[in-house]
Write a structure and sequence with these properties.
This protein is α+β, with helices and mostly antiparallel strands. About 20% of the residues lie in helices and about 30% in strands.
């Protein structure tokens, strides 16, 4: 991305929300400017057939690939206490979703933990791509800012009672869909519920966030949610389902309680690390969820195809 464009985007994003001292929309929006997470690349050439009354010609445009922060995924212990304060009211306690936290709250290192999770459209990714996608050098996000794609308080049967996913083979067979390896695992993806057997609170929250990301990037799942899916079109290639540990399909950027300007996949760092500097006293964490898009500027009426560089 050219520096003037980056500067203009930065000014626009920061002026949108002003300054901040906590995890609010200003912090969330500004996090979208991470060049490490975006991983912007020119990857090929697109071919278009351009026709007028005087004949047709083949035109080309640059094909780019980069990651976009689509969601803010908050994983937190106390129902209604989403650390992203501006949207916390979306997931207030209700008759079927109250309480939360560790199974034994008096035991600081209880291995059985419960986390609520919210997956909400990232305002920074939306603003960034809306402002710059017309240039042809930035792809448009498939997510809508502030859209609640998944709120665990509205899905109590699946999230609090693991129905029906506790009966899935992935939940019953050790080693299937693990974050890490079976011998050194942070936790398993299935059942995609709020319960996780993990004594480290940061790792437990990360497992829950990964489950939410896995869920919303698929359609037809037995949960109450809005799928985050975008259709491929001429010159536009959105991402598909994610796979835990596969950085080519997604990345995580820590937003709270520590704000990172880099991205990684879980398990990030060493499997035996305690992540003491990232432990939240109230059990509340948040990450930006980035996925890769490819696109090119439309230069004609008919898309003929593309060639990728090697």
């Amino acid at each position: 991305m050219k520096s003037p464009l980056r500067k203009a985007i930065a000014v626009g994003l920061t002026s949108f929300c002003g300054s901040t001292v906590a995890l609010d929309s200003a912090t969330t929006v500004s996090s979208a400017l991470s060049m490490d997470c975006m991983e912007y690349k020119v990857v090929g050439i697109c071919y278009w057939l351009f026709c007028t009354n005087f004949g047709c010609s083949v035109r080309t445009s640059t094909k780019v690939r980069h990651f976009i922060p689509e969601l803010v995924v908050s994983s937190y212990a106390n129902t209604g206490a989403n650390p992203w304060t501006d949207v916390a009211s979306m997931s207030s306690p209700n008759a079927l979703s109250q309480g939360g936290g560790n199974d034994h709250s008096s035991e600081a290192y209880s291995s059985q933990r419960f986390k609520n999770v919210d997956a909400i459209g990232h305002p920074g990714g939306y603003l960034l791509t809306q402002a710059a996608s017309s240039s042809g050098y930035i792809c448009k996000s498939g997510a809508t800012a502030f859209m609640p794609y998944f709120l665990s308080t509205l899905d109590p049967l699946s999230w609090r009672h693991s129905i029906p996913e506790s009966l899935y083979p992935e939940a019953l067979i050790p080693g299937m869909r693990e974050i890490g390896s079976i011998s050194s695992s942070w936790g398993h993806i299935y059942p995609r519920s709020g319960w996780v057997n993990q004594s480290n609170d940061y790792k437990a929250a990360a497992v829950i966030a990964q489950r939410a990301g896995d869920l919303v990037t698929q359609s037809g799942q037995p949960h109450i949610y809005i799928p985050l899916s975008t259709q491929t079109s001429d010159g536009y290639w959105p991402p598909g389902e994610i796979k835990e540990g596969d950085i080519s399909t997604h990345k995580w950027q820590a937003l709270w309680p520590v704000l990172d300007d880099t991205c990684a996949v879980f398990p990030n760092g060493g499997l035996n690390e305690t992540f003491a500097d990232r432990q939240a006293e109230d059990g509340a964490y948040a990450w930006a969820f980035w996925r890769p898009y490819a696109c090119c500027e439309r230069k004609g009426q008919i898309f003929l195809g593309s060639t990728d560089f090697r």
